Amino acid sequence: MLFITSNKGKFDEAYEIGKKYGFEIEWRKEKYEEFQGDSLEEIAYKSALALVNKIKEPFFIEDSGLFINALNGFPGPYSSYVFKTIGNDGILRLMEGVENRKAKFIAVIAYFDGSRVRIFNGEVEGEISREKRGDKGFGYDPVFLYGDKTFAELGEEKNEVSHRRRALERFFESIMADG
Ligand code: ITT
Ligand code: NA
């Protein structure tokens, strides 16, 4: 099972989750052309289609993002760019004085099965913390509270509850059902 991503954090988690289901996930570290779009689904679907000619064997990609309620879903589909530019400090600044801290992570997997592209979703609800906490995980993990801990404090446990876990679970279950 080939996972195409430039993000080591994503790969490491998918690899660990895959093991639990008996799937060996192989990393193809590649920066692919990422289509713009209004939704993660659209971006993932179009990006996967564009890779089909190049890869020629079954593979999946995953597009993910952080959606903050009080910011109308920002950074959402722009999560990668926003992380590289303003980062977690920028997110905390935007949330200064904001009482409604609700947010969610969404992961969308686009899987090319050799003939068509199929989509699997997962999400997890939480809150934006008041300060960065924890040194595990990657990306927005230090500012995403799940209960009273951030994803960066949870470590391994993140893989039990994350958006990525939920999307991968649906993906693996579907493959197993197909035999
Ligand atoms: P690809 O090569 O797979 O596209 P990417 O890092 O560009 O890697 P995305 O386009 O999906 O990935 O951008 C998602 C952004 O959201 C990126 O900045 C990630 O660091 C962040 N992110 C995704 N999942 C996360 C998670 O589980 N915890 C923290 N941050 C996450
Ligand atoms: Na990306």
Automatic annotation (TrEMBL):
Alphabetized SUPFAM superfamilies for the sequence: ITPase-like (SSF52972)
Keyword terms of this UniProt record: Hydrolase, Magnesium, Metal-binding, Nucleotide metabolism, Nucleotide-binding
Any one biological process term the GO annotation gives: nucleotide metabolic process
Cofactor: Mg(2+)
Recorded family membership: Belongs to the HAM1 NTPase family.
Stated role: Pyrophosphatase that catalyzes the hydrolysis of nucleoside triphosphates to their monophosphate derivatives, with a high preference for the non-canonical purine nucleotides XTP (xanthosine triphosphate), dITP (deoxyinosine triphosphate) and ITP. Seems to function as a house-cleaning enzyme that removes non-canonical purine nucleotides from the nucleotide pool, thus preventing their incorporation into DNA/RNA and avoiding chromosomal lesions.
Name under which the protein is recorded: dITP/XTP pyrophosphatase
Lineage start: Archaea, Methanobacteriati, Methanobacteriota, Archaeoglobi, Archaeoglobales
